[in-house]
Amino acid sequence: MRVKLFRVVLGLSVLALVVLQITSPLGKGFVISAAVDIKPETLNLNMQGKWITAFVGLPEGYNITDIDPSTILLEGLFSPAWSNVEGNRLMVKFDAPSVIDYLWTLLYHMGGNRIRVELTIRGKLINGMDFSGSDTITMMNPIDA
Does domain 31-140 have CATH number 3.30.160.620? Predict the structure, then answer.
């Protein structure tokens, strides 16, 4: 009797898991791998420029115009001040002084006058799917170099 009850409970549990898997929203937990190119590639932390620019591309099968620019964050901290679709890429511009203040802390904590750091951009498409991509830039403090 106990074995039969165990089999029934086990079968119902497996069935419940299968139903949950089938009915869960598509793409939940799935992150689209975006191509990210950040300019300048070498960032002088004493620069007086206004923008740090990133170009975001999506893999084949996704449309760049489906990105919701209001969801984009650089390093989870910085929203773009400006964005524009250029061909098959989205160009986003971040306020350089704000990003440079953040990067100064990285340079200080990592030590050295010239280091390579990976910066990540995350965001969402208008359908709610997440995307993420990274690029590595060189940061330098020319005063101490």
Answer: no
Among 65, 51, 72, CA closest to 132: 72
**pLDDT tens-digit readout, 41-66:** 998 878 778 999 999 999 999 999 99
What the block records as the tokens of 103 is 């990067």
Rounded to two decimals, the pTM is: 0.75
| Tens digits of residue pLDDT in 4-18 | 765 655 555 555 555
C-alpha to C-alpha distances, 38 to 88, 92, 114, nearest whole angstrom: 16, 10, 17
- Rounding to the nearest 10 degrees, give the CA dihedral for residues 121, 94, 139, 75: -30
Give the DSSP letter string of 27-75: TTT-EEE-EEEEE-SEEETT---SEEEEEEE--TTS-GGGEEEEEEEET
